């Protein structure tokens, strides 16, 4: 398979995952929740920098998540001007439910695969994701 063919397959995968979102507003909501849950807390500006998006986009998403009670601002004991963002218990429940839903969908798609094929795919996909993160290949795209 050529690099161009692989890129086409990955773009198709991206479109499928985007279509699987429950609502357009969740396109950024869930990645933000995951980022804060897994690696946070972060300030809104740090989130924008990591995701390579406009700070105003992050600010709108953060405001909606705060209103919804899915994240909250905390006082930074070292910098009174800063407001690190953290996921609330309600946000964790939403994120956990979404992760279970997606795991079930992917499990269904892989149901016909042999266990060794699934393991090999998981290993290769993990390597690919780590290399994307390491090289910053998709930063700002």
Largest sheet composition: 2 strands, antiparallel
In angstroms, what separates the terminal alpha carbons? 24 Å
Number of helices: 6
Strand segment count: 2
Across the major sheet, the strand order is 1-2
User: What multimeric state do the chains show?
Assistant: single chain
The coarse overall form would be: globular
Unreliable spans: none
Structural class: mainly alpha
Mean pLDDT across all amino acids: 85
Radius of gyration (Å):
17 Å
**Percent range for β-strand residues:** under 5%
Order of helices and strands: HHHHEEHH
Helix percentage:
55-70%
Describe the protein's architecture and organization.
- The longest helix has 21 residues, at 89-109.
- Helix 2 crosses helix 5 and helix 3 packs across helix 4 (55-67).
- It is built from six helices and two strands; from the N terminus they run ααααββαα.
- It has helices at residues 3-19, 26-39, 44-51, 55-67, 89-109, 115-135; strands at residues 71-73, 85-87.
- The two termini are 24 Å apart.
- The protein has 141 residues and is mainly alpha-helical.
- It is globular, with a radius of gyration of 17 Å.
- The chain has a two-stranded antiparallel sheet with strand order 1-2.
Relevant terms:
141 residues; 2 strands; 6 helices; two-stranded antiparallel ribbon; 4% strand; mainly alpha
């Amino acid at each position: 398979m050529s690099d161009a063919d692989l890129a086409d397959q990955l773009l198709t995968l991206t479109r499928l995952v985007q279509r699987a979102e429950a609502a357009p507003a969740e396109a950024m909501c869930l990645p933000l929740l995951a980022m804060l849950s897994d690696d946070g807390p972060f300030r809104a500006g740090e989130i924008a920098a990591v995701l390579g998006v406009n700070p105003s986009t992050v600010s709108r998403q953060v405001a909606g998540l705060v209103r919804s009670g899915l994240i909250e601002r905390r006082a930074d004991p070292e910098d009174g001007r800063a407001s690190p963002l953290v996921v609330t218990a309600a946000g964790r429940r939403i994120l956990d439910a979404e992760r279970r839903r997606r795991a079930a969908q992917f499990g269904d798609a892989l149901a016909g695969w042999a266990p060794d094929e699934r393991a090999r795919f998981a290993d290769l996909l993990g390597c690919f994701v780590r290399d994307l993160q390491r090289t910053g290949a998709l930063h700002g795209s």
